[in-house]
Amino acid sequence: MRDVYVIGSFATRFKKWPDKSFKDLTRDAYLGVLEDAGLENGEPIQFAWFGNCGMGMWGQANIRGQVCFIPLVREGLFPERAPMINVEGACATASMAFHGAWKDILSGQCEVSLALGVEKIFNPDVDQATMFKLFDEGIDTFDKQEFIAAYQQAAAEAGQSFEPGPGRTL
Questions:
Q1: Which end of the chain is more exposed for a tag (fewer CB within 10 A), N or C?
Q2: pTM of the model as a whole
């Protein structure tokens, strides 16, 4: 087994960012990673994983990472032909992206793989109930009662209760 190293990391400040687009936040995070890694551009990057859950609420349901990286490719900051996989796994999205990049390197498929995630959960043009729909769909919506029952059972086994209702995301 080979060693895998994180050579750069960055996080934007956690806030609402009403004046920034997904592309703006992607740029901020990506340039921060390059700077932390001591890279002038992303030329060494051979593969990328892009994590996002909510971009569909803004009308971009597919090819999210590719869309956010188009300006960076055009500026020569990200390799034009680097494959990119979009991942979505509710609260585990970032872990999935990181795990994918780690496996790329561990497997020997490439030497440098990027994991990057971008999220916005505030849109001043959309009411709060609509925005919370993003969280409502982070469960098994096909069998919601079965999902709730499983959580109620797990809570009971831990001596707690799981109570969906008003003012909660379920």
A1: N
A2: 0.89
Return the DSSP state at 159: T
CATH of domain 22-117: 3.40.47.10
The DSSP bridge pattern shows strands 113-117 and 84-87 to be unpaired
Q: What is the DSSP string of 2-61?
A: -------------S--TT--HHHHHHHHHHHHHHHHT-SSSTT--EEEEE-SSGGGGT--
Tokens 């509710």, residue? 90
Q: Could you report the per-residue pLDDT of 112-128, keeping only the tens digit for each?
A: 999 999 999 888 888 88
Any residues with CB less than 8 A from the CB of 152 and at least 6 apart, and which?
Answer: 161, 162
Contact 100, 147 (CB under 8 A): no
The structure tokens 């079965």 sit at 146
Cβ partners under 8 Å of residue 9, min gap 6: 33, 36
